[in-house]
Amino acid sequence: MKKKNNKKKLFIILGAVVVLAVLVVLNLGGSNRGTVSVQTKKVANGDVLSVVSGSGTVQPITKVNITSQVTAEVIAIEAKEGDYVNRGKTLVQLDTVQLQKDMESALYAANELEARLEGAQVMLEMYKDEYDRQSQLYEKDLTSERVYKDAYYSYKSQESNYNALSEQKRGAASRLDRARDNLSKTSITAPMDGTITLVDVEVGEIAQAQTAFTQGRTLMIISDLSSFEVEVEIDETDIADLEIAQKAEIEIDAFPDTTFEGRVAEIGNTAITTGYGSSDQSTNFRVKVALIESHPKIRPGMSSTVDITTNEHLDVLTVPIQAVVMREFDPDSLAQTEESEAEDGNVAVASPITDSAEVTEEDDAVDKKKIEKKGVFVNRDDLARFVEIETGINDQQNYEVLTGLSKGDEVIVGSFRTLRTIKDSTSISVEDRHAGGEGTE
User: Fold this and answer.
1) N or C terminus of the chain: which is more exposed, having fewer CB within 10 Å?
2) HEC secondary structure over the chain
């Protein structure tokens, strides 16, 4: 019986020890409750470059598409891709047989009308003489009115016939000139000095002339390879920041270790809309960026990326983009906090609107007047304190800070989840401190 009582006491003691241990653990855990692990970085000076980017292809600044102005068979190609040619050099020779016949036919028609016009002129002079003679006789009452009028009508009729033949002669001369011009266009020559960068025709093919109803085929492209540009499409939200002559950095895929300097040369005025009416709809503007210096191995059509610097502020106070957050505040508590901080001479902070399950009518009215502010959380004696800031331009990593921070301030930069949920006066522990520049303290 005594043995059983001792055993029972042992179980009670062990149970008490377990309960005590649990309470100690809970107490220790409770002492760290609300402490959030964060990553910080010190505010430092740096350069902020506002950049607009776009992708496109390299093209010669000056190039000409060679097309045919007449429809005819290609019988000879006098230049190949890569050849440098001078202005006036024959590039493509077209068949002349049909156009030669057209020219000869127009010449025959013009000659025929010339002969007919000469005969009509002789007849006109004859009818005019007769009319003049009858007029004189009619004035002396030596001929009848009927004969006089017949002479007049014959003269006027021949005059009209002569005028009609004169117009036909002009039309025939115009057709002859056009036929001669078409015949001369069977030899397609270079309109400028340059390099042949495309040959897209073979002997025996028909060169289709470009008209108001048909699109002429490009037979060749001749380009000036001494100067290049990159044509990119820039989103409509960025186009307002662009100006002629802004600096740009050009990266060509074919030269991964080289960056080319460029300048904005042309900004499109007409929007280019793709995917109209769909979820992928986008509106861009075409922008041309000229390369300042060329490279002998650059070729038209190479893929490239352009970064255009729209603004730059050097040696200014900067803060990482990920540190900047937006918070909503109760106007009343915000005013009280700012008044209190102004009296103490400390950095102004504010208490955000608390998330409460019970929302009164008064709280609801305040919520309707909530104020949104941009700022960062700063480490103040292991407490996260919200500091409102005013920012200037930004690049892909940093904001320029105009007001609210000083060099050396320790701002919270992570983690992303922490920055989404952290509140003013939250207790923090810094797990990773980054210096203002590269590296870790």
Assistant:
1) N
2) CHHHHHHHHHHHHHHHHHHHHHHHHHHHHHHCCCCEEEEEEECEEEEEEEEEEEEEEEEECCEEEEECCCCEEEEEECCCCCCEECCCCEEEEECCHHHHHHHHHHHHHHHHHHHHHHHHHHHHHHHHHHHHHHHHHHHCCCCCHHHHHHHHHHHHHHHHHHHHHHHHHHHHHHHHHHHHHHHHCCEEECCCCEEEEEECCCCCCEECCCCCCCCCCEEEEEECCCCEEEEEEEECCCHHHCCCCCEEEEEECCCCCCEEEEEEEEEEEEEEEECCCCCCCEEEEEEEEEECCCCCCCCCCCEEEEEEEEEEEEEEEEEEHHHCEEEEECHHHHHHHHHHHHHHCCCCCCCECCCCCCCCHHHHHHHHCCEEEEEEEEECCCEEEEEECEEEEECCCEEEEEECCCCCCEEEEECHHHHHHCCCCEEEEEEEEECCCCCEC
